[in-house]
Amino acid sequence: MSLKSLFWKRIDLKKQEINPKIEPGQQLTYLTDFNKYLFFGGLEQQKQNHNKNQSNDKEKQDNKNNLQGDGTPNSQKSGGIKFSLGAKPSFNLGGQKSGGLKFSITNSTANNNTQDFVYILDPAEYTWKEQICSGKIPTKRVNFFSWYEAPYYFIYGGEGVNGKILNDMYVLNIENWEWKRFFWLDGPQPKADSQLVNMGVNKYLIGGASMPENWVYNQVWMFHFENVVWNTSGNELPGIYWEQIEIQNDEDFKPLKAFSAVKVSESQIYIFGGYNQNKQCTDTSILLDVESQTISEFETKGTKPSPRAYHKMLPVKDNLVCLFGGVSCPEDAIKGPTSTMLNDFYILNLKEGYFTRPNVGGYQPSSRYNFAMAGNQSEMASEIMLLGGKSSENLCDKYIYILGEMIKDEKEYWGERDLSSKQQFEEYRVALKNNKKKKEELNNVSLQTLEFSQAEKIMNEDKRKIAELEILLKKLRNENEQNNQNLQKYKIQQQKKNQEHIITKQNYEIESQQIEQKNNELQDFVGQISTLLAYERKRRKLHSLKSFQLQDCLRKAENLIITIDSVYSKGQKDDLIEGVLTDDAIKKIDRKKKEHKKQLSVFKEDFELIYENEKKIKKEAKEKKNNLKQSKIMVSQQWKNFLSPEEQRMFQVKFEGYGTPKNGKK
């Protein structure tokens, strides 16, 4: 439903052949799959018109039996006892079988306490139809709750005859128009002026007051139909289990009654108004989250409704909730001369939390409370229907009021008589413009037309101003929404950048820690290498010294051996040793000589191998030294990349002096 060109249309029930009796506290429910409204409730005797079109006595008798409902007495009565004759035996009060005569005690006032028919309103032609129902007929009631989940129409609780507070629940199957009653073992106590909200699978009963004490509660109860067996043959349906919901912050949820509550999301219920424990009207505006089981205040802007109770709210399209009527006075003053009844209409934008009070044309409903209101928000039609209720003058008028958008067919909204007067004024205005027989035309114009002329001028001027204000308001809202979107976008971008900076900083810190750890490890490694090199140099120096000593010893031994060999050779040549040494001694000397040469050859090979290994070790040490130098340069460069210029200057000595002794010599 758009906020532009809203218009109240009025339908006169007196023109209908079949009219329900309008009382306060009745309920009107939209049947989505039939595009019709179901009207039910009331405590007074409804006028029954459904016998008019019956063609024979049998149909009348059948319809009469249907009207009485299941288990109600027939027209043959005798002091509240029903007698019937039959071939089958039955049990009497004593438990003995009788010969076909049976009797049972019945309630002779059952018809006065039940209503076995409902009214169906066709919005296409605005005509009523009485629909006869069977099964477990509900007792008469007002101020109950009703909702529709195809193909079932449900009612719960309410106020019955003699002010009795009811705590029962019935279901009507629209396909066969049969009533059945639910039963349960444990559940909430009967409470007046509570609110039942259909959240889909789960239903929630909120607040209310116990009677006659009028103690106000803030309890929340929940039930569902998942365990209900719908195809049972009896009139009683088991499977309902109630569960009390414990609100986490129930101190923020003050006890309320006579408020209004609607579903605004899959898990949230919006609550407005109601009477508190002190019997004062409130403008309570809260959200009940059934998932987190918490209560939170819902702050609103704009033209907020005044404190009230017994009003109605309906969800409409595009996150909008409408609010109408109610009473704004202490509970004790409702029936007094100081009571304040309301007929104002508001729209709440749930997304923006903004209340508006749109200008609505047409036939404004009178001030009222305890009225019936239902909405059809389909794609084909968007309307809100209202009727009944109480006013300061007791009962309201008998009209049906329909709120919808203004359409081009003015006849539908203004009616035959008003449209004729408007056309007469248009002719009069054309005559004035042409200045032909002005006086005669003026005499033919009725007083009603002249009044209509002035009213239309005012309305046109008001409409023009309203249109300009709506355009300006829409522009401002669009700009505000765009600004909010841009602000939200900038906030998201800023948060994203801040998060990226934090992550980058954390990564830099981690990398710097890793590099510092590697640097420390390299320093330890370099220290170990330096120690090993020093040890190697010392060992090599000692090895060289021993090698030189050994070489000198060998050289001297070699000279000695050469001298001995020369002497021996000369002795052999001059036959000086013949007879001195035996042949065995000579052979032994030759053998020792050969062994000595062999050992000299092995020593030479070992010495050459040691010399080659020393050259290789020197080469590897030189390469490792170069590698360490390159690693130092690379680590220094990588470290400096993560430091600011100031930090680089601070650690310059550390990097440049890395691996250098204090005396400056490497």
From TrEMBL:
<feature type="coiled-coil region">
    <location>
        <begin position="425"/>
        <end position="525"/>
    </location>
</feature>
<feature type="region of interest" description="Disordered">
    <location>
        <begin position="48"/>
        <end position="79"/>
    </location>
</feature>
<dbReference type="InterPro" id="IPR015915">
    <property type="entry name" value="Kelch-typ_b-propeller"/>
</dbReference>
<feature type="compositionally biased region" description="Polar residues">
    <location>
        <begin position="64"/>
        <end position="78"/>
    </location>
</feature>
<keyword id="KW-0677">Repeat</keyword>
<protein>
    <submittedName>
        <fullName>Galactose oxidase/kelch, beta-propeller</fullName>
    </submittedName>
</protein>
<keyword id="KW-0880">Kelch repeat</keyword>
<dbReference type="InterPro" id="IPR011043">
    <property type="entry name" value="Gal_Oxase/kelch_b-propeller"/>
</dbReference>
<dbReference type="Pfam" id="PF24681">
    <property type="entry name" value="Kelch_KLHDC2_KLHL20_DRC7"/>
</dbReference>
<keyword id="KW-0175">Coiled coil</keyword>
<feature type="coiled-coil region">
    <location>
        <begin position="586"/>
        <end position="638"/>
    </location>
</feature>
